[in-house]
Design a protein that fits this description.
By secondary structure, the chain is an alpha/beta fold. It has helices at 41-47, 95-98, 107-110, 153-159, 162-173, 189-200, 213-221, 233-241, 256-265, 288-294, 308-320, 339-348, and strands at residues 3-5, 15-17, 21-22, 29-38, 57-58, 62-70, 82-85, 117-119, 122-126, 136-140, 144-146, 181-185, 205-209, 226-228, 246-251, 266-274, 297-300, 330-335, 353-357. The chain has twelve helices and 19 strands. Helix 9 (256-265) links the parallel strand 15 and strand 16 (266-274).
Length: 358
Amino acid sequence: MRAAVLHETGQDKLEVLDDVEAVGFGPGKVRIRVRATGLCHSDVSAMNGVLPQPAPFVPGHEGAGEIVDVGGGVTAHKPGDRVLLCWLPACGDCPSCKRGQTQLCLAGFMNAGTPNFKRPGGDVFGFAGTGTFAEEVVVDAGCAVPIPDDVPFDIAALIGCGVTTGLGAAINTARVEAGSSVAVIGCGGVGISAIQGAKLQGAAQIVAVDPVASRREAALRFGATEAVAPDGLPDAKQRITAGEGFDYVFEVVGRSATARTAYESTRRGGTLCIVGAGAMDDFLQLNMFELFFDEKRILPSMYGGGDVLRSYERAIALWRAGRIDLAGLITHRVPLAGINDALEQMRTGEALRTCIEI
């Protein structure tokens, strides 16, 4: 089958090969024919080494498709079922799951160290235990979440990561209050979803911050009350909050420099929500006095900060009701053969989300 493979960490292009085989099928597993997958910035971060991932690997973790086969003991699925892929399934038994923090379950991360594919040259991993830039993928049955017939594969794929992450950051983690002021730094697919979440929660002012003009324009369509380039944030802070700072600031870039800017843009007693996935060697510096004196809450948000299955259901319900726009997030579509075009669209900021149709 065909799949897009990164041979070595640090390479900036993928090679689409037709000699890749999905492996690991057996008891407790399902084989999925991938129909659509989104390109998430985390895929690029894994390619360049910001996020740890063994290589060679097939990127992609935001996907949806149809089950073509089920392994022994799998009773909740059957061939033909339409599903989205959950790259971080809950085991149900670990301390995090028992506390109701299923987004912190580590069971899914264990899959990242087991090859999902093979080629004549050897094993190939799947990013985050999935690897959706492929025609087929074999995953644990718990990674396959059924979707209703009225949800298109491209919409379902977005819900599998970016939409759930952004909406959840505003709704589950920060719990944005009605009438509040919000700034969102980084307005790709996840940042736009955070803007939609803040709008749903009733925020009065939502300032979108991004260096790319087309993304700023898009943010206004999705609910931002104004959009500025990074150098315009101090002026917006002064005008909107009289210099005090925003009630909520979302950092959706994953860099210490933007996190520090976000901290400084948050009012005393306000909330800084860290959504971007950054590198292990990129340290955020805060002094002990400001931590104590400003009493700003710093809340990291992992995969939307809540039960992902409930978050999926909520996103579908809001989409059906017309309360959130998911189709509008997909600004580009390419076939698997055009995956490197999609990477370029993300790196330049041209795309909010590119859908790879497989």
